[in-house]
Amino acid sequence: MLIHICGIDGSGKTTLIKRLSQYYDDSTCVELSSNVEFVNQVNEICKKNNSNRWIEFNNKFRSMIWANEIINVVPQINNYLEQKKIVLIDRYIICNKIYSQLEDDSPLQLINFIHESLPKPDFAIYLNIDPLVATERINNRGLKRSPKESEENLRKASEMYKYELSKVDYPVRVLDASKAQEEVFLEAIKEIETQKAKAYQKEEVF
Ligand SMILES: Nc1ncnc2c1ncn2[C@@H]1O[C@H](COP(=O)(O)OP(=O)(O)OP(=O)(O)O)[C@@H](O)[C@H]1O
Ligand SMILES: Cc1cn([C@H]2C[C@H](O)[C@@H](COP(=O)(O)O)O2)c(=O)[nH]c1=O
Asked: Residues in domain Thymidylate kinase-like (predicted)?
């Protein structure tokens, strides 16, 4: 079962995925990390030249780097799905679609073609949060903020998530991510159990 945990930055995706993967023995989280070395090197080179990757790479190019990350984890996802694991993933199709259009809303056909070739999530959990609350959390985290975490971008991404998720042909459960971590976690479990029961019923029929 492939579950896409999504939401704007600071909505609590990493926190929730970590808890769910500890709770479910038969789960695994798929991390996108194959280009990390490349991105770090680009950052270093840019820094030496008083620049940064957001100046040097346009939005579409950065999105292709992340699309490539997704392509690279597909064999891993398929392998886990064959083993009947619960696969938890963040930064998947919808996320890539949104960030590819955040600063430049012209569509990039290639991104859509890539997305069509990827394993479809069985369902998504959307962590809904006011961008202001997300901003506070990001600030409290104490890490350097990426340009895409500006309040304006969070607001835009929040609207885009709602629009994109309204178009998908798989179930989407919207959770109130401003609630306490424990509550969000329990509601996510409830949803996973519901979807597991439905999937089980389907298997029984066929
Ligand atoms: N329900 C919650 N209530 C309060 N704080 C939370 C909650 N969930 C997560 N946090 C805190 O908010 C911060 C952001 O959470 P987290 O890193 O999980 O979000 P994220 O969606 O993965 O962000 P990003 O996309 O930027 O990586 C962390 O400091 C985390 O401890
Ligand atoms: C463009 C884009 C970004 N992301 C996510 C992945 C990383 O956490 C950050 C960093 O992005 P940056 O543009 O390189 O600063 O954003 C993503 O998931 N999908 C994308 O298309």
From this structure: 7-184
Task: Please list every protein residue whose CB sits less than 6 Å from any atom of ligand 2.
Answer: 62-63, 66, 91, 95-96, 99-100, 146, 148
Of 191, 206, 201, 205, which is closest to residue 86 (Cα–Cα)? 191
Q: Residues 159-198: pLDDT tens digits?
A: 999 999 999 999 999 999 999 999 999 999 999 999 999 9
**Atom 16 in ligand 1: which residue has the minimum CA distance?**
12
Render 75-86 in DSSP notation, one character per residue. Answer: HHHHHHHHTT-E
Q: Record the tokens describing residue 181, joined without a space.
A: 């971590």
- Enumerate residues 6+ apart whose C-beta is below 8 A from 22: none
How large is the ipTM? 0.92
> Does the predicted TM-score (pTM) go above 0.90?
yes
Q: Assign domain 2-205 to its CATH architecture.
A: 3-Layer(aba) Sandwich (3.40)
- Enumerate the domain spans of the chain: 2-205
Q: 27-44: per-residue pLDDT in tens? A: 999 988 777 888 899 999
* Tens digits of residue pLDDT in 134-153: 999 998 987 777 777 889 99
Strand order in the sheet with 172-176: 27-30, 86-89, 2-6, 123-128, 172-176
Residue nearest to atom 26 of ligand 1 (CA): 9
What single-letter amino acid sits at 24? Y
